[in-house]
Amino acid sequence: MTETVAERRDPILRTVPRPGDINANGHIFGGWVLSQMDIAGGIIAHRAAGGAVATVAIEAMEFIAPILLQDLISVYAHIERRGRTSLAIRIHVVATRGGAETQVPVTSGLFTFVALDENHRPRALPPG
Fold first, then answer.
1. Closest CA to 41 of 79, 83, 1
2. Which PROSITE patterns does the record associate with it (predicted)?
3. Planar angle of CA 92, 93, 99, nearest 5 degrees
4. Which of the residues 85, 100, 103, 108 has the least number of beta carbons within 10 Å of its own beta carbon?
5. What is the CATH number of domain 10-115?
6. DSSP letters along 4-62, please?
7. What is the pLDDT of residues 46-86, one digit of tens each?
C-alpha cells in the first residue's frame, strides 16, 4: 500500500475555496491555489529562517486534478533543500472531496524562499 502525503505529516494549511475563487469552467482558479501554496511554504520558510523570507522561484509546478468548490484543501510542505540564504520547500495540495472524504492530489511544486535581513536583502540562514 502506498503511503500518501497526508499520512506522512500534518497539513500546514487547511482552507475551503469560496464561490469568488471559481473560474468559468467551475473549477478553482490556479492563481488561488498558487497563493495558498505560497502561504504554506512561507510559514515553513519563516520558521526555518527565524524571520522574514521572500519567494524567489517556483519550479516544477504541476496541476494534476481540478479543485472543486466544495473541496476541503490541505496544503502540505517540507524543506527539501537548504542553501546558505535559501530554502527549497516541496509543497503538495490534496483535496478532500465528497461524502466518502476521498483524498485527491491536485497539485505540487517546489518553491524557493530567501531569508531577508532588516534591509530586505538576503541573509544567511541560522544553523539548521
1. 79
2. HOTDOG_ACOT
3. 140
4. 100
5. 3.10.129.10
6. PHHHHS--SEEE---GGGB-TTSSB-HHHHHHHHHHHHHHHHHHHHTS-EEEEEEEEEE
7. 999 999 999 999 997 889 999 999 999 999 999 999 999 99
CA torsion sign, 110 to 47 to 40 to 10? positive
Count of CB atoms within 10 A of residue 98's CB?
11
Amino acid at 58: I
Compute the C-alpha angle 71/75/81, nearest 5°. Answer: 160
Per-residue cell: 1: 500500500
Cβ pair 54, 114 in contact under 8 A: yes
